[in-house]
Design goal:
With about 120 residues, the protein is mainly beta. It is globular and about 40 Å long. Helix content is about 0%, strand content about 50%. It has no helices and eleven strands. A hairpin with a 6-residue loop joins strand 4 and strand 5.
């Protein structure tokens, strides 16, 4: 199993940047693909980004392509989400997730979830 703890959320103005972190417990961090999702009030959960267990492959949701970047530091058991050019519609609770299975779909198959961190973008 793996436990995930997000941090780095907060309030930022439109056009600003923020970096989220997700610290994973356990010694098998490199066995998991790591993803970021978000959920705004009254909306369904939305896939944001994923990075492969090797760190060599990444994927993004259409709404964040070109603005967000996912990365991971295996030595620190941490995955990051660098968010730039933020918009009010990026306001949501952001969740980190992990999956051990090999799944083709970017947004499917996640077994472990963090508790989330709030990101608010003011206009």
């Amino acid at each position: 199993q793996v436990q995930l703890v997000e941090s780095g959320g907060g309030l930022v103005h439109t056009g600003g940047s923020l970096r989220l972190s997700c610290a994973a417990s356990g010694r098998t961090f490199s066995s998991y693909d790591m993803g970021w999702f978000r959920q705004a009030p009254g909306k369904e959960r939305e896939f944001v980004a994923v990075i492969s267990r090797s760190g060599r492959a990444t994927g993004y949701g259409d709404s964040v392509k070109g603005r967000f970047a996912i990365s991971r530091d295996i030595a620190k058991n941490t995955v990051y989400l660098q968010m730039s050019s933020l918009k009010p519609e990026d306001t949501a609770v952001y969740y980190c997730a992990a999956r051990s299975r090999v799944v083709l779909a970017l947004s499917d198959g996640y077994d472990y979830w963090g508790q989330g961190t709030q990101v608010t973008v003011s206009s």
